[in-house]
Known about the structure:
Blueprint: E1 10-15, H1 25-38, E2 42-48, E3 61-66, H2 77-87, H3 91-108, H4 140-151, E4 158-161, H5 166-175, H6 178-183, E5 186-190, H7 198-201, H8 208-222, E6 225-229, H9 232-241, E7 247-249, E8 272-276, H10 289-301, E9 306-311, H11 323-330, E10 338-341, H12 347-355, E11 359-361, H13 375-382, E12 386-390, H14 394-397, E13 404-407, H15 413-422, H16 424-441, H17 444-454
Parallel strand pairs: 1-2, 1-4, 2-3, 4-5, 5-6, 6-7, 8-9, 8-11, 9-10, 11-12, 12-13
Helix pairs in contact: 1-17, 4-5, 5-8, 10-15
Amino acid sequence: MTHDISQPPRLLIVDQSLLDTNGHYYEYDLSIIRAANLAGIEPILASNRRMMRALDFHGTQVLPIFTQGWSEAHRGLFSRLFLRVAESLPEILARQILLCARRLKRLVMPASHMTHAETTPPSSGHPTAVPFSRAPTVEFGRELLNAIRDIGLGQNDHVFIHTIGLHELDSLLDSLPEPLLLAGPTLHVVLRRDPYENKMASGSRGGIAITLSRARPLASKTGKLKFYTDTEQLASAYRGIAPEIEICVIPIIQEMPDLPPDTGAKNAGQPLRILYAGNARMEKGFDLLPAAAQAIREHYLETGRAQMVIQANDSVVGGEVGIYEARQKLGVYPSSQVELINHPLSVPDFHRLILSSDIVLLPYDAGAYRNRSSGILLQALVAGKVVVVPDNTWLSAQITEETGRTYEAPETFPNALISALENIGYLSLNARAQAPSWRERHETHHLISALISSAPAPE
């Protein structure tokens, strides 16, 4: 490592899943880059090799080095090749082929492998490992290590891995030599998934609890392998399965534009805008939207009092099972009642979409989001919007009955939306009043400060 410690530190932002503007990856990376520059830290971005070259990072050095995104890393070679082929096919054909493949998978795999949002801790308090038939080949650790060496990151520098899966973390530990950590940069690893989800609890090495126990000697000896979550609830869950590992909580970040002046009530005849933002995912409750639309159809949609605006682009090739059917049901409404946005949005357009809304719907899977955060919820709160979220989740802990509505079960989600509509004036006033405090607490510079201050002083 040759970087002079008298020089400003460098920050390697690791985003192995960055491909395009779909999801929050691009926006998150831009926020970190801007905050690093303002702090006098040189940002460098390491992305997926298939990233769109048209993405603009405002002059930041970009290294497209990763062959797999985090969602690909748990798949075997055949599955990855199959999905790559499906990406090149027409959407309808890809959907049909993937649907047949998923049905076949259900016939030949145990049901325990199929659940993506099962997060209930077993009675032992530790995730139950379900061994895979074979471990996928994951290149993440080797590719990242090569980048660290090629760039020449030293003791004064930092590596920020803001999204990582179980197999990638195993790959990192397999590839990470102790001398490199002692003489090289501090590694900051964010754990965003619940440790009791199957993709974290189960693995060829035994699951996340065993993986973190493998990391403990390296972390304690060097002081340069740091682990984080972005909610206290998630940190508590990880501390429960790996008490020997220090888990810190970093801020969730946002860079929403300033709010426009409050013009009071909407003009006569202008509908309330009810927004579902992000992309079409089952764990985010996209399949619950048709029932919500039906519940408000007569009194709100058909009368012009409200309009639903739904970002409906698929999050994965071919879409998830259930998404296509829900989108078809929503598509029967005229766009004046239900507007479907079937493509990813640029960051400015996404921000404008949130700012133009009155109510933001987050009908997320309560099991999956019991401890996990939501960047879209934070953006809605910073924008002073009324939100509807599931009860007994991290999301519901962020709001009160004065700023939003919660619901206990999927079938009561439409009732919560109706209650929000009936009380929109009162709720909006309170939500907007709390927006400045949300903005200040979650500005990106807080995250940069937390990362830099946690590193040991260079020798």
